[in-house]
Design brief:
The strands form 2 sheets. The protein has a 5-stranded antiparallel β-sheet with strand order 2-1-5-4-3, with helices on both faces. It contains 3 helices and 7 strands, in the order H-E-E-H-E-E-E-H-E-E. The protein has helices at 9-18, 42-63, 106-120; strands at residues 22-29, 34-38, 75-80, 83-91, 94-101, 129-130, 133-134. It has a single domain, classed as Beta-Lactamase (2-Layer Sandwich). The longest helix has 22 residues, at 42-63. The chain is of the alpha+beta class. Strand 6 and strand 7 (133-134) form a beta hairpin. The chain is 35% helix and 30% strand. Residues 9-100 form the Roadblock/LAMTOR2 domain. Pfam families: Robl_LC7. This is Roadblock/LAMTOR2 domain-containing protein. It comes from Streptomyces gancidicus BKS 13-15.
């Protein structure tokens, strides 16, 4: 189990420094609660985390329609006006989200996110909650 708002700041900064154009990085639980962030305002990071819960749920539903595979969402990339949105599974019930401008190269970002997840994924486990309490 990770502690809420765990101190991943230096690792998230390393990701931001490794790829030009990063605007915000958010580590979140599957139910959309922010665990950690780098860049951006806290309220914006909370909104991104909440929106990511819907995106990962939608991606998982679509993934289950493929005949071969485990039906789990691994990574989502959305090109938005003047930038990109990345969402990657990062541990049991945890995700890594990045917002970047257009200078960010998607292939490089995907590789850097994967490297970060490998390094910290074992520490990114968010247990399910019921009525706001950890189950």
């Amino acid at each position: 189990m990770i502690q809420q708002r765990a101190n991943f700041d230096w690792m998230l900064k390393e990701l931001a420094d490794g790829v030009p154009g990063v605007e915000m990085i958010v580590v979140l639980s599957a139910d959309g609660l922010r665990i950690a962030r780098y860049g951006g305002e806290p309220d914006a990071a909370d909104r991104v985390a909440a929106a990511c819960a819907g995106v990962q749920s939608l991606a998982a539903a679509v993934a289950q329609e493929l005949p071969h595979g485990d039906g789990e969402m691994k990574m989502v990339l959305i090109e938005i006006d003047e930038g990109y949105f990345y969402l990657m599974a990062a541990g049991a019930n945890a995700y890594l989200a990045v917002l970047s401008d257009m200078t960010c190269e998607p292939g490089r970002m995907g590789g850097m996110m994967r490297d970060l997840v490998v390094r910290i994924g074992a520490h990114l486990t968010s247990p399910p909650r019921r009525n706001g309490q950890t189950v």
